[in-house]
Amino acid sequence: MRTGDELPPLEIPITRTLIVAGAIASRDYQDVHHDPESARHRGSPDIFMNILTTNGLVGRYITDHFGPRTVLKKVAIRLGAPNYPGDTMVLNGRIVTVEGATATVRIVGTNRIGNHVTGTVTFSLGDAE
Q1: What burial class does residue 81 get, using C-beta atoms within 10 Å of its C-beta: 0-12 exposed, 13-18 middle, 19+ buried?
Q2: pLDDT tier, 126 (very low <50, low <70, confident <90, very high otherwise)
Q3: Are strands 88-99 and 102-110 parallel, antiparallel or unpaired?
Q4: What is the CA radius of gyration of the chain?
Q5: β-pair partners for 75
Q6: Does pTM surpass 0.85?
Q7: In this predicted model, what pLDDT tens digit does every residue of 78-107 receive, in sequence order?
Q8: Do 73 and 103 form a contact (C-beta atoms < 8 A)?
Q9: How many CB atoms lie under 10 A from the CB of residue 107?
């Protein structure tokens, strides 16, 4: 693990089921995350993914790559273009700092519209601290 290392991309198909299940799991019952008619009434072409689901997928990206001893310390993300059903979000990352067993990765997740999520994840590798 070195500064500048690129993580392999992770492609995540954005299904209606993923969007609704993520909203339910995070107790986000806003209608724009499960009701297409309500979403359209509010100006969106369809339902869209909530930030908590995106946050979980970003965490998964890091832990899948670095393994089960990975401990997330800080996830700082910002949403941009919505994730709609039928999109594919591609997560990419680059290590920006390494200090002992702790590192920070810059994350960008894109879809057909543009950047869905940008931010950083700081983590450590298990009990090495």
Answers
A1: middle
A2: confident
A3: antiparallel
A4: 16
A5: 121
A6: yes
A7: 999 999 999 999 999 999 999 999 999 999
A8: no
A9: 22
E strand residue ranges, the chain: 6-13, 70-79, 88-99, 102-110, 115-125
CA dihedral of residues 96, 80, 60, 107 (deg, nearest 10)? -10
Contact 30, 117 (CB under 8 A): no
Neighbours of 33 (CB within 10 A): 21
Burial (CB < 10 A; 0-12, 13-18, 19+), residue 2, is: exposed
90 touches 109 (CB < 8 A): yes
Cα 115 to Cα 34: distance, rounded to the nearest angstrom: 22
Weakest mean pLDDT among 26-30, 83-87, 107-111, 124-128: 124-128
3-state secondary structure of 124: strand
CB 121 within 8 A of CB 75: yes
**Tokens of residue 37, six digits:** 């008619």
Looking up tokens 């890091």 gives 62
- Which of 41, 56, 22, 116 has its CA nearest to residue 32? 41
Decide: 112 and 46 in contact? Cβ < 8 Å: no
